[in-house]
Every structure is written in structure tokens, then in C-alpha cells.
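C-alpha cells in:
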């Protein structure tokens, strides 16, 4: 799940065009919210967890962990993503809405959410992966059936 989240984020950020050169009130509120969300820590933890899971699934990747961490630090770090993320939030929410969201994260429940979200997302990803793996034969059969309908051989 986290791998898919990072991929979706990468695609979203690479295909979106954000103009954050003019710092609006929404931009300022968005930046403050991202700081409050501790996005830098969340991104770093997500990258670590995702790489570790991938290396458990594909042990041959382990010798390349250092290189992969360098790559992600360069392109998926908070500093690399911050301008686009500010643009994303400031386009999705008004300055007032961002202020209200930020106020929630100042509450004890909001702080708990920030603290637990990376762990919950990782566990949610594991649940999703287990669900897919448990039903993989069904997916393989569906692909095989569709390939037969299309008159093409199914790939493995």
C-alpha cells in the first residue's frame, strides 16, 4: 500500500503544475500545516518502511539500500516535495479551511493522529497486501479468462 501511495504521489507531483512562487495566505497556511503534520518525519518513515518491505520481498535489493535511500532523499524528501505539496494543499483548501485543519492538529486527538498515522498507514498497507495475496489465484484466473476473451496469451 505504501509503495502504491508513493507511486501515486510521484505521478501526481510529476504531472501537476503548481505555481508557488507567489506566496498567498493559503500557501502560508498550507506550509504551516505541513510543518505541524511533521511531514518530513512522516515521509522519511514511509520511505524507510517501504524500502524495508520491498527488501523483505526481494532480498536481492538489499545491497542497493544505500543507493535507494540516497535517491529517495534527493527526490522524495520533504524539501524536494514541499513546494508541490504547499501548492496541492493551497489549491485544495482556502486559507480559512487550512487554519481550521491546523487547529484540529493542535488538539490532543489531532496530535495523536499525527503520531499514529504513519504506523496506521503501514499496517493498512500490510492488510491490503495480505488481501491481494490471499486472492491472487482468483486474479490470475480473471486475467487468464480476459486474455482468452481478447484472444491473447496470458502473461505470468
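Residues out:
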Amino acid at each position: 500500500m505504501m509503495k502504491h501511495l508513493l507511486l501515486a504521489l510521484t505521478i501526481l507531483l510529476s504531472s501537476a503544475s503548481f505555481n508557488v512562487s507567489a506566496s498567498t495566505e493559503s500557501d502560508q497556511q498550507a506550509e504551516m500545516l505541513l510543518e505541524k503534520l511533521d511531514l518530513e518525519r512522516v515521509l522519511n518513515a514511509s520511505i524507510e518502511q517501504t524500502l524495508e518491505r520491498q527488501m523483505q520481498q526481494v532480498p536481492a535489493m538489499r545491497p542497493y539500500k544505500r543507493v535507494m535511500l540516497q535517491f529517495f532523499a534527493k527526490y522524495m524528501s520533504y524539501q524536494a516535495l514541499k513546494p508541490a505539496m504547499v501548492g496541492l494543499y493551497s489549491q485544495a483548501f482556502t486559507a480559512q479551511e487550512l487554519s481550521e485543519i491546523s487547529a484540529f492538529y493542535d488538539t490532543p486527538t489531532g496530535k495523536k493522529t499525527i503520531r499514529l498515522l504513519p504506523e496506521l498507514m503501514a499496517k493498512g498497507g500490510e492488510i491490503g497486501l495480505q488481501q491481494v495475496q490471499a486472492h491472487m489465484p482468483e486474479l490470475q484466473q480473471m486475467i487468464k479468462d480476459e486474455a482468452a476473451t481478447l484472444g491473447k496469451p496470458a502473461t505470468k
